[in-house]
Design a protein that fits this description.
CATH topology of the largest domain in chain B: Rossmann fold
Shape of chain B: globular
Structural class of chain B: alpha/beta
CATH architecture of the largest domain in chain B: 3-Layer(aba) Sandwich
Low-confidence stretches of chain B: 1-14
Order of helices and strands of chain B: HEEEHEEHEHHHHEHEHEEHHHEEH
Number of strands of chain A: 0
Number of domains of chain B: 2
Number of domains of chain A: 2
Largest sheet of chain A: none
Largest sheet of chain B: 8 strands, mixed
CATH superfamily of the largest domain in chain A: MetI-like
Number of strands of chain B: 12
Largest interface: A-B, 20 and 32 residues
Strand content of chain A: under 5%
Distance between the termini of chain A: 32 Å
CATH superfamily of the largest domain in chain B: P-loop containing nucleotide triphosphate hydrolases
Mean pLDDT of chain A: 79
Helix content of chain B: 25-40%
Helix content of chain A: over 70%
Strand order of the largest sheet of chain B: 6-7-8-3-9-10-12-11
Oligomer: heterodimer
CATH class of the largest domain in chain B: Alpha Beta
Chain lengths: 344, 355
Amino acid sequence: MPEPPRDEVPVAGPEGHRDLERYAEDSLDSGLAVGERQIYVSAVAVGDEGRRRGAGLGFGAWLAIGWLAFIVIVSVLAQLDLLPLDSPTKSFAECARLGPFAKEGSAPGHLLGCDSNGRDMIARLAYGGWSTLIVATGAVLFGLVFGGILGMLAGFFSHKTDTVITSLFNVFLAIPAVVLALSLVAFLQGAATSSGGGDRVDPKLLLILAIGIVSVPLLGRITRASALSWSQREFVLAARAQGARPLRIMIREVLPNVLPAMMSIALLGIAIAIVAEGTLSILGVGVRPPTPSWGNVIALDRGRIKDSPHIIFEPAILIFLTVLSLNFLGDVVRARLDVRESAV
Amino acid sequence: MTSSVTEPVASASNTQALLEVTDLCTHFETDRGIVRAVDGVSFTLDRGRTLGVVGESGSGKTVLSRSIMGLLPKRHTIRTGSVRFEGREIADLPAKEMREYWGARMSMIFQDPMTSLNPVMKIGKQITESVRQHLDVDKKYADELAENLLRSVRIPEPERRLKEYPHQLSGGMRQRVCIAVALACGPALLFADEPTTALDVTVQAQVLDLMATQQRERFMAMVLITHDLGVVAGRADEIAVMYAGRIVERAPTSVLFSDMKMPYTEALLSSIPKLEQPSHTRLATIPGRPPDLVNPPAGCKFAPRCAYVQPRCTEEEPPLLPATHPGHEYRCWFPVGTPAGDEALARNRAAKASA
């Protein structure tokens, strides 16, 4: 549908009515039905409003959703062995360190090359995506559940409960996140070993717990702030005046209103957790090789950035695009929530 | 705390009043000092009757209603006096026991229907919530009840509206939903805290009429709080005018309008624009602002803004004095329409003219 030329739409003024009539006649003369013309005029008038509230997410958001869907589907299918990929641990010695942009040339039969042990990069990245995503989403889910519960309690009951929980959050936030995560992994590993199940505990679970605990105060504070403001709304008092119990008010009245804010921050949280997993891998406490993750693929061959840059840059680009998509979607979700809140 | 219950005036004459408030004080501790939001309010209310509470913003109307219902936060709040509901003292009941009353025996309609409904909960759910908690009924019965309630507050197509969210309704419709929510469990006492202030004038009368009809049908007592004497004029049986946390005049509605004694009531009434006045008549206002409730002035609280003020007013606070008509009380040394009052007004006018 062609955009109507804006300057042609008569501006309402003292002459407005006559102008509109003349305009309508002109439209008729030029063979355009008045009805259609009016639709154009009103479309121009509501244009901004319509875009803001309309169903369209925008091209960027769909691109982000598309990328994330691609990553998730490939990772899941790879993990279920449904993709025609090499095993991520199978070594092709003749192709070691070879790949696009590598000093020693590209690896025939391996589109993205191989790592320093000759393992196919596509397989490493596809299987590694699973580890990275499971650790990141698991950690954020852990943070959402426990941070959510603590934040809801602090925001809803406020006063003493709030003082205790917020102080706890502040203590955790005061410790540098990486140091906290590092020591948590070490501590949890020690605890698992001493309880006798050291090797049977999936190291991914330890990572989920460690990053999850670090994310609790971050997600908890957001939840608290949102719960605090919703708890002071009149409908909460109205529910109390109808005799609802505090727990019921918290879960039925406040939580549904807080959830959107939690969801928006959860998307950003997953992005941060993906980066955190990479950081921990480089520090040597990430997903344990030979199981690949985006982080430990980088960490394993970080010395080869000069000779075989593809080993470092391929997972780095995946992390970059995924984190970018998550951040972008988080912003979109937040923007749309703001609109909805102001409209209600 | 409850020693003042034995004040003979109210309790002896009418032992089965639905609501009996005696010397209720609600003070808030703040950094600036103690705010006396409600300061010694007493009244009784029978079933089927309406009490209009009128006053400016900040006069303690809302705090009074929430204080009677026990809805104020416990922290930093000092509440003394007695509240007897259906013959039982409820002023000191813990929230756990008050929950048996909230919604079921007494309930409240709030000022702004935009904020007093949960934006993410369907209307049907909001009505059936309290029904299912207080009355032991199954979901099907509660849904039918909700539909009937919506029909009785004259919402068209109730079965469809039950499945809608508050933002799909207009302001007037939302306030009707709020009324339906408040009436759901058949309370004996309804507080309406400025129920029409946030509404369009064209639906104000409809909503007020609806509340009056519901009240008659359910033989319910109602406390109608407003800043607009016009709202309570035809609808309340009795009116209490509040100023600075106190009742300054209380009378049956017709008596209040025909024979007001308190200069504040007179000032409130004369600040309502009248149809018979010619266009561009300057609207009468009350000069000054309501007093600071942390450091209220000595003597009569209205003295600084009063046209009748005399030296005695700023020194000595008038008690609630009985007027000639039974049930009419006022707080004033120089009441409107008495020789003393006329003389005071004339003296002030003369002083102003000569100054």
